[in-house]
Amino acid sequence: MDDIYGEYGGYFYVPMTQAFSLAIPVTIGCSWNKCLYCDLNHDNKFRKLALEEIKSHILRLKELNASRRSPVEKVVLAGGNPFCLDTPSLINIIKLVKEHFPEVKNISSFARADDVLRKSDDELLELKSNSMGELSLGIESGNDEILAFHNKGVTVEENNKAMAKLEELNIGYSTYIMLGLGGKTWSKKSATDTGKMLSNFNPQVITLVSLVLFKDAKLIEKVKTREFIKLKPLEYILEERLLLENLNMRNTIFNGTHKTNTLILKGKLPEHKELLLKRIDEFLESNDDRDLRDFEKHKWRRWSIE
Ligand code: SF4
């Protein structure tokens, strides 16, 4: 698959909700690429693939999928935030996808709030009518100080506006939330603010990931100067508990099964909230930081082979 995904280097990734979707390269890297904690795009400079390049990947993927028993029904546009592309470009890509995979029912991608807000309602509706949905928004935290510290480039208000807009237009989306992003200073604040913020909305899935210190991320400098103090393993779980306590969702999957998380947890909210809290309490009772040290050591290695 190097001929298709090789340019992404060691960190090819798609939204967790799209793990079984066919990934079609559309952009390389992220158009923002300034978040302190992120080194997912490594040395990749942001680049939009030309339509001809995308077409050649689609043709190759068509060839590779020719013997599949079931048709390709779900596609994810790959890259840090392919939704930053303008609407005509996205429509051209969708047309190409549908020409070669006519049974596609949903086309998804990672998106930043500003990518959503840059598009008019009419554009978003046009994309929706062309099968774009299940967007994956990197919300990360409901606290502005944390977003600003990490140079996220969007505010809580913008994240709120993007989610409100998608819901108003009935476009499905999931959110990424990052445990530990506030470090020791803002751990509790992040959990309560994020829980309260998400409770105003109705994402299909809340995908929980845990902060990993990437060795080349700018955050490392802040760790060295003690401007950022990373949580200990059990503190991630305490933050998760507080977040869950503050979540009052109507119909959302709580997915904490990402490999960066110490405790693997998944359930439906609100139905499973008490059960999930009980699982967390049991975990906290039977583990201490020493037990979890090995897991922490391997987080980085596990990421690098994703
Ligand atoms: S927006 Fe996402 S992909 Fe881009 S730099 Fe920030 S965390 Fe990384």
Would you mind describing this structure in some detail?
The protein is 43% helix and 16% strand. The protein is α/β, with parallel strands linked by helices and 306 residues long. The chain has a single domain (2-304), classed as tm_1862 like domain (pyruvate-formate lyase- activating enzyme, Alpha-Beta Horseshoe). An 8-stranded mixed beta sheet has the order 1-4-5-6-7-8-9-10. The chain has a two-stranded antiparallel sheet with strand order 2-3. A hairpin with an 8-residue loop joins strand 9 (252-256) and strand 10 (265-269).
> What is the name of the CATH class?
Alpha Beta
User: Could you say which overall geometry the principal axes of the C-alpha atoms support?
Assistant: globular
Beta strand count:
10
Write out the distinct hetero groups bound to the structure. Answer: iron/sulfur cluster
**Proportion of residues in helical segments:** 40-55%
CATH-assigned homologous superfamily: tm_1862 like domain
Structural key phrases:
single chain; 306 residues; alpha/beta; 16% strand; globular; binds iron/sulfur cluster
Element layout with pairings:
Elements: H1 2-5, E1 22-25, E2 27-28, E3 47-48, H2 51-64, E4 74-78, H3 87-100, E5 106-111, H4 113-117, H5 121-129, E6 135-140, H6 144-149, H7 156-168, E7 173-179, H8 183-199, E8 205-210, H9 219-224, H10 233-245, E9 252-256, E10 265-269, H11 273-286, H12 289-304
Parallel strand pairs: 1-4, 4-5, 5-6, 6-7, 7-8, 8-9
Antiparallel strand pairs: 2-3, 9-10
Helix pairs in contact: 2-3, 8-10, 10-11
